[in-house]
Design a protein that fits this description.
The complex is a heterodimer of chains A (265) and B (387).
Chain A lengths: L1 H34 L16 H8 L1 H34 L5 H13 L2 H12 L8 H26 L2 H9 L4 H12 L1 H17 L2 H6 L7 H11 L4 H29 L1
Helix pairs in contact in A: 1-12, 2-12, 3-6, 3-9, 4-6, 6-9, 7-8, 9-12
Chain B lengths: L12 H8 L1 H4 E12 L2 E12 L3 E5 L6 H9 L6 E6 L2 E2 L10 E4 L11 H11 L4 H14 L15 H13 L5 E5 L7 H18 L2 E6 L2 H7 L2 E6 L2 E6 L1 H6 L4 H6 L4 E8 L4 E4 L2 E4 L11 E7 L4 E3 L12 E11 L2 E8 L4 E7 L12 E6 L4 E4 L9
Parallel strand pairs in B: 3-8, 3-9, 6-7, 7-8
Antiparallel strand pairs in B: 1-2, 1-4, 4-5, 9-10, 11-12, 11-14, 12-13, 14-20, 15-19, 16-17, 16-19, 17-18
Helix pairs in contact in B: 4-5, 4-6, 5-6
Classes of the chains: A mainly alpha (265), B alpha+beta (387).
Chain lengths: 265, 387
């Protein structure tokens, strides 16, 4: 057993890990070479190489306009989730209020209900009020979906935050508002950043809910991709997928850099 | 408002005056203070007064209620009953940030995202002082704790001792009239702890601030306090000056918690002037306030009050107890002997050591006893040993 683990440690585990990575990543990576293909139809490996698909994407307003809208929506979702959930998580964690546990469970709810059920529910609920096909509606729906993630990551930061920082600040005469902004918030930075990243990415690639509640004027990029795939099998999708992957990757790297910088301080 | 059972500590002239003008100089007055958690009573009807400038230590084992009492004074927990006055004003339900206190925590509680300077400036910013005034005061506080050179560092870059000094500086920089300390040296090693004890005493003397200090370390309590308040199971067991508690404990718990002691159970025979025990008849100590006069009791003698060959001490006719040496150890400046009487009862004798003093052989037979003033009679305590 010990001999096995001695060999397995340095060799087997990394090999297994890499196999898993490749297995998981391959489908996403395969679209990258396809996106640089000659156009016409989806082929792997591409027969010819060109930037034709990217040129098409950026010259058709129906495509890049949708990307822009998706980015704006994701940004709004990130800001709203942060503004709503950070104070809520702090209150739920620190104040002993009646029904606090129920509120926490409710905030985590979107994670437990199947997305298709949520989407259908929203559709049926919003249709009579004429709220379908509104950008704001998409922002609100995505904020709800992102809430549990922000709640979880900020909650974890809060659990690690020793109460004595707040106690000593109170004793020194600080008001609760000052304590929240000067003492608590700076120490939740990495938790908030992680939650914000989740919120942005969730909104950016969410398709089911958006498919139900958007119309032709408010289509998000994933919805547009889905329709494109269903109705026209446009090879532009490969370019779009590559761009989306790039955005996510850039954000994740920026996040990691930020965290490393913070830890080294 | 001192508990009536407390004997007045031998008052110095200054203390005598303080006592006469009691209400004017009392910084903290706590009456009937109670805190329960469900069915558990953490603090039970405690009365305590602290004079201006006094250094009071709350001493006790964990769960004795000392931290609960401190947290109630700080306003971090709400009392289930009773009253707290701070500087003559009712503060029972005053929010923590309106009490005007200072506090030092065991874990320092320095903000990790602020530099040392920013940490110390924080309470001054709360008080809306000008930038120049803040800079001046922070520098002053840093000088007072001899760490002026670390102003721009983050707390993480400092040693434990330095961090605690900074948290002291942060506490004194806004000049609260009362400072609470919750086991502030608990996380430091012994040597550093002794340095910091002196540092805290020096600051206390220099600033004339009222201090309430919580510790479970009896040596720390003895060496630092003007007054020790010994707590047990949510009540005050005994309070008084350090020498009072050490030399005149009134209960077994007090005798045992502060220092080590030889304890012998027995029955008082007042007519014969004897205390009958399994070690034979021992001389009955002179009557003391609070000591039992008849019936069962426990005799206590501090190890350093024990003597070899008591009969050779002129007046005493008592031959002492014959015992066998089990072990002798050198504790720096003192020698400590562990002996066993013929009935198995263990005795500890402590004396000053010197380079010329030979340690007795293991197994040697010696007579041990004590002088007439060295022993104290304490009431028996059925719950003792269970806490």
């Amino acid at each position: 057993m010990t001999r096995l683990s001695r060999i397995a440690g340095p060799l087997l585990v990394p090999v297994l890990a890499w196999i898993c990575y490749i297995f998981l990543m391959a489908p996403s990576l395969v679209v990258i070479p396809i996106s640089f293909g000659g156009g016409g139809d989806l082929h792997f490996p591409p027969k010819t190489w060109s930037l034709e698909l990217y040129r098409e994407f950026f010259t058709q307003p129906a495509w890049w306009g949708t990307l822009l809208r998706s980015l704006v929506i994701a940004l709004c979702v990130t800001v709203m989730t942060t503004l709503l959930v950070v104070p809520a998580a702090y209150a739920l964690q620190r104040a002993r209020m009646p029904g606090g546990r129920i509120l926490t469970a409710l905030a985590m709810g979107p994670l437990l209900v199947p997305v298709i059920v949520l989407a259908l529910g929203l559709y049926l609920e919003l249709a009579p009020f004429g709220m379908l096909n509104h950008t704001l509606t998409v922002v609100l729906a995505h904020t709800m979906l992102a809430t549990p993630f922000m709640m979880t990551s900020v909650g974890a930061s809060l659990r690690h935050l020793d109460r004595s920082y707040e106690q000593v600040s109170l004793i020194m005469g600080a008001s609760k508002v000052r304590i929240f902004f000067r003492v608590v918030l700076p120490q939740l930075k990495s938790g908030i950043a992680a939650g914000a990243l989740f919120a942005f990415l969730i909104s950016l690639d969410e398709v089911i809910v958006a498919y139900f509640i958007t119309g032709p004027d408010t289509e998000t990029l994933p919805v547009k991709m889905y329709s494109a795939l269903r109705w026209e099998i446009s090879p532009i999708i490969a370019a779009v997928s590559t761009l989306l992957t790039l955005v996510s990757l850039l954000l994740a790297v920026a996040m990691m850099r930020l965290e490393r910088k913070e830890r080294s301080q | 408002m001192n508990a009536p059972m407390t004997p007045p500590p031998t008052p110095t002239a200054e203390e005598g005056i303080n006592r006469m003008t009691d209400s004017a100089t009392q910084m903290i007055r706590v009456t009937g203070l109670t805190r329960t958690y469900g069915t558990f009573t953490a603090l039970d009807q405690v009365d305590l007064s602290v004079r201006k400038g006094e250094f009071v230590t709350l001493l006790g084992p964990s769960g004795s209620g000392k931290s609960t009492l401190l947290n109630l004074i700080a306003g971090m927990t709400q009392p289930s009953g009773g009253r707290i006055e701070i500087d003559g004003r009712d503060a029972t339900h005053l929010p923590t940030n309106k009490r005007g206190l200072g506090m030092v925590f065991q874990n320092y509680a320095l903000m990790p995202h602020m530099t040392v300077f920013q940490n110390i400036a924080f309470p001054l910013q709360v008080r809306r002082l000008s930038k120049e005034e803040i800079a001046r005061r922070v520098q002053g506080a840093l000088k007072l704790v001899q760490l002026a050179h670390v102003a721009d560092r983050k707390p993480k870059q400092l040693s434990g001792g330095q961090q605690q000094r900074i948290s002291l500086a942060r506490c004194i920089v806004y000049e609260p009239s009362i400072i609470l300390m919750d086991e502030p040296l608990g996380a430091l090693d012994k040597k550093l702890r002794e340095d910091m004890q002196l540092e805290i005493k020096r600051l206390h003397a220099e600033l004339g601030v009222t201090m309430i200090y919580v510790t479970h370390d009896q040596e720390e309590a003895l060496s630092m306090s003007d007054r020790i308040v010994l707590m047990r199971k949510g009540r005050i067991e005994q309070q008084g000056a350090p020498e009072d508690l050490y030399f005149r404990p009134r209960t077994l718990f007090a005798a045992d918690f502060l220092g080590s002691s030889n304890l012998v159970e027995g029955t008082i025979d007042a007519s014969a002037g004897q205390f009958r025990t399994s070690l034979g008849a021992l001389p009955l100590p002179a009557p003391q306030p609070g000591a039992p006069a008849t019936g069962a009791g426990v005799l206590m003698v501090r190890p350093e009050a024990m003597r070899f060959d008591p009969a050779s001490d002129a007046a005493s006719g008592w031959p002492g107890i014959e015992a066998t040496v089990r072990d002798s150890i050198v504790l720096g400046g003192v020698l400590r002997h562990y002996l066993e009487a013929d009935n198995g009862h263990r005795l500890i004798v402590q004396e000053g050591s010197s380079a010329h003093r030979a340690r007795p052989q293991r197994g040697a037979r010696l007579r041990v006893g004590w002088g007439p003033d060295a022993a104290r009679l304490l009431p028996p305590d059925p719950e003792f040993g269970k806490t």
